[in-house]
Design goal:
three-stranded antiparallel sheet; 71% helix; 153 residues; 2 domains; elongated; mainly alpha
C-alpha cells in the first residue's frame, strides 16, 4: 500500500506542463514524452473577460449615479435652508457671507504661511478679516435688536 502511494506521488511529479511564450501549442511532458493538449480558446476567454469588465463598469456607473443623486439632494436641502434664511432676514445673509469670508481668508493665510503660496495678499486678508468681523458684529447686533416678526414655535 505504501509503495502505491509513493508511486502515484512520483508519477505526479514527473508531469510537467510547458506553456508557449509566443503562442502556439501547449505540451505536457509525461515521462519524457510530449503529450499534446488542447489549445486554449482565446475567443471564449476574451468574451468572459469582456463580460466581467462590462458588468463591473455597469456596477460602478450605478454606484456613481446613486452617490451623485444623493449629493444633489443634500445640496438642494442645504441650499433651500440657506435661501430660506436669507429670505427671512437679510441679516442672516450678511452673517453667512462674513463667516464664509473669514473661513476663506484664514485658509488663504494658513496656505501662505505653511506652503508659501499666496492665494490672497496677506495685508488685504488681514484687513478683510477685520472688516468681516465688524460686519458680522453689526449684523448680529441688528438681529438681536430687531424683534422676530414671525416667531416660530
Amino acid at each position: 500500500m505504501a509503495d502505491d502511494a509513493y508511486g502515484e506521488v512520483k508519477e505526479e511529479q514527473k508531469v510537467v506542463t510547458v506553456l508557449p511564450v509566443t503562442g502556439g501549442r501547449v505540451f505536457r511532458y509525461r515521462l519524457g514524452r510530449p503529450v499534446r493538449l488542447e489549445t486554449p480558446d482565446y475567443s471564449s476567454f476574451k468574451a468572459t473577460v469582456e463580460s466581467a469588465m462590462e458588468s463591473a463598469v455597469e456596477k460602478l456607473k450605478v454606484e456613481i449615479a446613486v452617490q451623485h443623486e444623493q449629493t444633489r439632494a443634500e445640496v438642494r436641502a442645504s441650499r433651500r435652508d440657506v435661501l430660506g434664511a436669507i429670505k427671512e432676514s437679510p441679516v442672516e445673509y450678511v452673517k453667512i457671507l462674513c463667516e464664509f469670508g473669514v473661513l476663506f481668508l484664514l485658509f488663504s493665510l494658513a496656505i501662505h504661511f505653511t506652503l508659501k503660496i499666496e492665494l490672497v495678499n496677506p495685508t488685504f486678508a488681514v484687513f478683510m478679516l477685520i472688516a468681516c468681523g465688524i460686519y458680522w458684529g453689526m449684523a448680529r447686533l441688528k438681529q438681536k435688536r430687531t424683534p422676530n416678526e414671525n416667531p416660530q414655535a
